[in-house]
Fold:
Amino acid sequence: MNIDNYLKNLETIVNIDSGSECRDGIDEIIAFFQNLYTGFITEVGNKDKSNPYLIIKNRESDDIDFLFVGHLDTVFPKGTATSRPFTIKENRAYGAGVIDMKSGCLMIHEIVSKLKDSDKNICVIYNSDEEIGSECSHDIIYEMGKKSKYAFVFEPARKNGNMVKERKGILHCKVSFKGKTAHAGVNPQDGISANVEAAYWALELSKLSDLVNNNSLNIGIINGGTALNVVPDYASISFEARSFDINFFEKVKAKVEDLIKNPHLKDIKVEIVDSSQSTPLFVNENTKKLIEIYDKVKKEMSINCDWESTGGGSDANILGGLNVAVVDGAGPVGGELHSEREYLEIDSIVQRYNLSKKVIDSLL
Structure:
């Protein structure tokens, strides 16, 4: 690969604001990648929705040999690219999204461009809503994943160079409580405190957290009340559960149903306002074989890194319940994601490109 050309392209896209809400910048970067993939079939999906995605194929086919997934959006607001543009200091590159994950998206192009004329069917998906849950792109990633033999998610490798083999699934839920207002001093007995019911739920749900077995439940947001002397008639809680075990999520959902049927306060009204769940990414038999190939190539290349399990999610979770072989964290090495200190280790670019390229060549 031409590292100078790679860094020039990286500077171009890092200096474009592409936060998940920055539609103009997202459109610009999608157009940039469409132009990069000359000779490929490209299609922009969800054009009329807030977060489009780009699909690239070397040919039309019902089956996919190699699926590559990356996200073009960042967590940073409009104006960040101007205030904190792409810079290089010593062996590190800095800028919004430089490691999460614009460098990985470019690496996908470097690899796929060498596979255009192979007899293998290639598909690339670049989405623009990973940082906000991949709601618009979930279905297309899932559908393409069902057709694929191998999937490579080019999220960054960890600071220590490790790649990712497992990710926790995530259950999000928001619950609202409708009580009855009353004067807290004059007639509190006539009120039904939504705050009290919300607090009861928070305590009961928190009992499910089991960190010893990697099952966590966090009450992230509690809202309720208008004044000290008013019994509040409305409150809400938002919580998330994370686990490698799907059964934990079933336990949480059963607890929610039990709390609805058996409220702490009589006549309180409870509503599930929003709920979503992502599948854990776990090592199936096909993934195990792909990891073994990576380990063999790493040894041949004298690359000293391992595999990690993490509580953070990625688009690899969408592929977690399928039979496809999945590796994550296949991108370059970097750190301090989602902060102004975000960086990319420049020396890792060619190394990680060669690693994945040699693995894929062995699968050809």
Summary: The chain has nine helices and 18 strands. Residues 3-167+280-363 form a domain with the Aminopeptidase fold (CATH 3.40.630.10). The longest strand covers residues 169-178.
